[in-house]
Amino acid sequence: xxxxxxxQQQGGTPTEGTRRELGSRELQTFNxxxxxxxxxxxxxxxxxxVFTRPAREFAARHRLCxxxxxxxxxxxxxxxxxxxxxxxxxxxxxxxxLHPDHG
Length: 103
Prior knowledge:
103 residues; alpha/beta; disordered N terminus
């Protein structure tokens, strides 16, 4: 039996066209400690996948900055982290930060 199902590398990184999504539960946990426990002024959650709509909406309400797999390339190519802080995902899909007043 193959210990790594099709589309999964060791460590659980999606490959071969599969695309994992991160939900609001993980962001709720992150939000619960980012400011209070770690003193973050601007909590930034970086993921090698995309975020679900509920996760993006939660992030907008709690002023979290999300950087997903689609934005990692820009950051890796030299785009300053501060450039990602005010992105509006309401216009562009799953990989941009929503404004808190998004409805």
